[in-house]
Each structure stands twice: as C-alpha cells, then as structure tokens.
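Reply to dn_fold:

You asked what the input looked like. This is it:
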Amino acid sequence: MQKNKVRTSNSATGVRRPGIKPMQWKILLSSILTATLFYLCTGCELSSHREVNNSITSDRPEISIVINNLGMTFPSGMDENDNPYLNYIENMNGLEIKVNTPSPEVYEEKLDVIMTSGNLPDLLHTYDPVWFDQYTKQKAFIPLDDLISQFGPHLMEKIPDEVWDRVRYNGKVYAIPSLNEVVGNEIMYARKDWLDRLGLKPPVTLEEYYEVIKAFTLDDPDGNGKDDTLGLILMTNMGRSAPFFGAFGTQLDTWFERDGRLINGSIMPETKKALTYLARLYQEHLLDREFPLNLHNNLYEKVENGKVGLFSATWFDTRGPIAANRKKDPNAEWISLAYPTGPNGEKGVKNVDVIRGYNVIPVGTQYPERVIKMLDFIAADYKNLKLGFENEIWTMKNGRMVTDFDMHDKHLYRGIYQSLVDVPDPVLFKERLNSLGDFHLFDNLQTIGENLIINEFYGVPTPAMSQYDKQLSDLQNVLTKIIMGIEPLDAFDQYVEEWKQQGGDEITKEVNEWYSKHKDGGGGSYE
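and this is what came back:
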C-alpha cells in the first residue's frame, strides 16, 4: 500500500503596507461573534478613515463587486458599503466600490440569477469550483493573462505557478484564485485531567483509543457520580471522523493512487474497516448517540459543559469550545493527542485544497483593469487587511504582537474583503496566531501539516462531478446508518455498487484521464 504523502504549504514574502496599519481573518472562524462598541470612541483613527472616504468619493471611478459576506455582521453604523476597511481599500485605489453581498445560504443561486440578469457586476467571487467551471466553459468570463501581466505584479509574485495552472482553460487564466492559509483542519484533543484521574496514558493505537473512549464513557471520569459523560463525539454527515478513517489509510471523498490509477476513498475496502470500528463504538454506547444530529453549536455546548472527554477538534477549537470549558471548569486540562494509528501503522487526516475561492470578471466589463489593480492591492497589503489596523487591533510590545480581542472580534468583517485574495504570509501568520493567546493555534496547524493524507485529484470538477455530485453525496447517508446499526456492515458493498452505477464510474474515468495528462506534464484543469 502506498504511504500517505505530506505536503507543505508555499511560503510568501512579507509585504510593505502604504499608509495606515494591519490584521486578520479566517473563514473557519466565521462563527466568532462581533462586539458593538467602536463609534463611541470619537476621533479614533478608524473614524477618520471613514470621514476621509465620505468627503472625496463623488467623482471617483466606480466598480461593482459581488462577494460573500461569510455570515459576518457589522458594528452599529456600518455595513458592507461603509466601513473603515472598505473605505481604506477605496482610498488607496482611488475607487468607489459598490458591494453586493447575497445571503450565504443562497449565494450560488443568487450568482446564477445575476449571470442571467443582463446587469453584470465588474467582479464576482465564488467559493464553488463547480460554479466557476460551468460558467468558464460557457465563455462567460474574460481571460486575465494580459491584465495580470500589466496590473498584477503582487498577484504574480504571491500565487504559485501550480495554482495558476488550475484556473487555466485552453492555456488562458480565467480567475484570480484566493488561497487557503491552512493545510488541514482536524487534530485530536482529550481531557488530560480525566486521563490522570483514571490512571490512563494518552492513547496512540486504535485499541488504546477504544480503551480510553470506553473509560471516559463508563468510569465516571469527572467524578460527579453520574452517568453523564461522552467518550467520543462526532457530527452530522460524518463530521470530525477524519482521524479514524485515516487510521485505516483512507478518507471520504478523497482520491488515492492504487496501482497507477486513482480511486475514491469513499468506496475503498479500508473505509468499510473504519465503519466497523465506529459501529462497534456506537453499539457499545461509547459514541455519542446524537452524533447524526450534532451541528457545530451542539458540539460546542457539549464540550463547553464538560460532557466530552475526547474528540477530533478543529485547529482553532482550543480558542473556542475547549477554552469555554476551561473557563467554566478551571480544573479542566486539555492536551493534543497523537492521531490514532491503525493496524498497518497508518494515520492522518485529509488535507484542505489550496484554492479557497475564485475571482472572475464577466464578459462585457468596461474597466477590468480597475478590478485587477484592486485585487493586486489586497494581495499586497496583508498586514492592514488581514491583521487589522496597527495600534487599534494590535500593537507591538517588547517585540511581540499583542491583539486587542474585543477590537479584533468586532472588526472580523474585514475578512469579507481580505479573503478575496488571501495569499498567506507564514511569518505574519505565526505572529498573528500567537498574539491571540496561549491556545497553541500555530502548533496545532504544524501537527496537522505533518500528518496530511493528500487528495491526489486537485483539478477543477470534471463534467460528471458537476452532474452527479449531489446524488452521490445523498447516497453517502448510508454510512451513518451503518454506524448506527440501522443497516448491516455488508450494506457498504451495495453502497459501492450503487456509487459506481449512479455516476461514480463516469467520474472515476474522467479523474483518471486528468491524472494521466497530469502525470505526463499536462495542465491541472480538466478541459
């Protein structure tokens, strides 16, 4: 069996910021709440940015953009068209930017409506590669190569060649990609105080994990005399299960090379073995019985309230539910664990795709160079737009970045604009994460990066993927039923056959056509 490969992220050089000052955001932190102070502080620098903008916008050249608000909210008195960070971008580029933010719940549907409306904006941003692929093939967007060469020096510098290859069709670039700053999401965490109370060591192997999960469920690890603890918690749609599939050398919806061809992990025999392990936990009441219904808020509450002793956390959960639990219970002590190691010595979690979003310019846009210049500015000004304005959201003290958490959370909305072209800066990224407090955020990401199971297919969606994606996703519901015992383990074999018949074989054929071309030095897109 081929060993899993570890991919490291590309580094980016630091950026010089003109004028004002810096800070952050992250799509995976979109659940953080924003506060409501701000304009009570009269005369502050953020207000001055707004006042300057309002006084000089009347005769500026204009562009219109459609972007996702990521579920963010704005402090009182601000909105997507009037806030210090948008005004800063406008001032530095001499533009009036009209922003449209359709609801995230129906965002792609709204993009479809816009594309057929006959009233197109100058820029659209999508996180959906299928949407990008479909409209590119309909020749709805303009090629960007010449514009990038003339007006996008920072875009060319900071976005790797292999990423540009993935937004090329017939040799032409049709999108400015935004990059993911993280390479993976899940890391195992457990209550060390529970381990100590029960005389247990941190688990490593799957069998050791089983013993700890069993003890955390049955042996009253919190010492309150009640049967009220959960050994392991998962989420709906198999969420937070990646490390357990990784212990068997597989991941759902991930493509693996086997004998020179790519095969989808969802139908590999190793996946059935992982389901067998999880089904055992469920049958013995060691896995949260409510896991098929658990959304993020349910997981958060159960961890915060001291009901959970072990789970696959996101890298930022140490600043979320784990921190909330420690605040409620000062005796709670959490530690990261080694990923569960399977019978063949395998372990790891799935990687996150390097591309997070796509910026496209519709055919007919009158001044596309304005769009490219704006995106180039965002790529260059990581500090101000990612970190926030210096001396307002963060300061340097004794050579160390210190973040004002209230101001940081209040102005998280800046990520709506910065994430248009996220181009990671590893040095500033580490400084920023460390400035958020002693939550081991950077350490968590390093651990994840050292244990990635790489998806070998990273092209744009193939035609069959676009056609069959939803029905194959619905078909995967049977995996939850197998874990719960509603369906027998052998139902997995029937699932594999149905997956192949309902479009999976067609997708596999197209994926391997892409893979063959890629191995021979061809481009990264499926054309």
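DSSP finds 22 helices and 16 strands in the chain.
Hope that clears it up.
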